[in-house]
Write a structure and sequence with these properties.
There is one protein chain. This protein is mainly α. Helix 3 packs antiparallel against helix 4. About 25% of the residues are buried.
Length: about 120
């Protein structure tokens, strides 16, 4: 189960890191064709979401890999689950079922990591 959790953590970290880099480095106008929800938010909010995703990605890997404050890994997973719950709510409001489904999958994976690392497979 530990190997499974590491694989899920790596996948989540990659997805959130790529998404975070995209949201923090590209102008809102370039994001709008691929992420239509950005039209509903200010540039600062989109950047804040990107920074939160980048920090979450780092939090999924670095504390556990270095052994320094490994409790931060399940906390990062929990925070990313909250971000995905809010993302799903935004997609529901905008009537974007594919966005809801993608957010739900990432939410479920983050919850699995949080459960596993807080619970039976923690450090």
């Amino acid at each position: 189960m530990n190997v499974f959790l590491w694989i899920v953590q790596a996948i989540l970290a990659a997805v959130f890191a790529l998404s975070g880099v995209m949201k923090t480095t590209q102008p809102k106008e370039q994001l709008a064709p691929r992420l239509p929800w950005v039209e509903d938010f200010s540039t600062g909010t989109v950047r804040l979401i990107g920074v939160a995703e980048l920090l979450g990605a780092l939090g999924l890997i670095l504390p556990a890999a270095t052994g320094i404050a490994p409790v931060l890994t399940p906390i990062a997973a929990t925070c990313l689950a909250v971000v995905m719950a809010l993302a799903a709510a935004t997609h529901v409001r905008r009537r974007e079922p594919s966005g809801v489904a993608f957010a739900a999958v990432l939410f479920a994976l983050a919850v699995v990591v949080a459960w596993g690392r807080f619970g039976p497979y923690g450090w």
